[in-house]
Amino acid sequence: MKATKPPPRVESRRRRRSQRKRLQRRRLLIGSVIALAVGAAAWGAYQYIASAPIRAEKAFQDGMRLTGVGDFMGAEKRFTEAVRISPAMAEGYLQRGLVRKSMHQLDAAIDDFDHALNEDSDLGPAHTALGEVYHERGDLTRAMNEFTAAIHLKPNSDAFYQRGEVYESLGRHQQAIEDYVAAIHEQPDAPYFYRARAMSREAMGDREGAEEDRRTAIHIEHQY
To answer: Which domains does the chain have, with CATH numbers?
Structure first.
């Protein structure tokens, strides 16, 4: 027997059902592809964000390495990358400021030291670095304030020596001597501390003490 052909209406309904199923399957496939793509993008973004500390630290260490070999421009770029990735990295701003100071970009260096202290107010080396810049510019009051702040946070030979230099610039020889004594106590093998104290002692009329300091400085230098 020959197969009976379905009426046109039935055939039309079948075609419409088949088309709806194909459309549903296509929509489901597209939706699945989109969901996978969104998920992959979200996972990639998560991994990128999660790796930020590692990437920032690598850029920072690259900057330190380049600073060590005297490539200040290269170091500046790497420190800039470090603080771009991790904007709260106080040490990154400090090191970039030191590099910029070495390149005589003093305004930029001051901005970096200020930024470092905004992120970490207890970062003593940033106060010392700021004091050095202000001293270089002849702003002795600000220099004194920064060195004193560094000493209050953590007594250290560099800040004592630098503040002693400011006192000496102001003609306050006895206070300079006291800071040089403190610096020597912190680091007794630094010959330039003794040479600085010799100048202050001589200004105070203590020629014997000045000569003793010079002999000590020479002795230390010959040891190395």
So the answer is: 53-121 (1.25.40.10), 147-224 (1.25.40.10)
Is pLDDT above 80 for 156?
yes
pLDDT digits (tens, 9 = 90+) for 11-53: 566 666 666 666 676 766 666 556 555 555 544 444 445 567 8
Mean pLDDT for 97-108 is 97
Q: Which two tokens stand for residue 67?
A: 């600073």
Q: Comparing 15-24, 106-115, 195-204, which segment has the lowest mean pLDDT?
A: 15-24
Instruction: Give residue for tokens 């970062």.
Output: 123
How confident is the model at residue 181, as a pLDDT? Answer: 98
SS3 percent helix, strand, coil of the chain, rounded to 5, is 85, 0, 15
Amino acid at 24: Q
Tell the burial category of 174 from Cβ atoms under 10 Å away from its Cβ (0-12, 13-18, 19+): exposed
Distances (CA, A) of 59 to 53, 83, 93, 111: 10, 9, 12, 20
- Tracing tokens 């990437």 back to the chain, one arrives at 55
Task: Report the alpha-carbon distance of residue 28 to residue 41 in Å, rounded.
Answer: 20
Residues 60/79, Cβ–Cβ less than 8 Å: yes
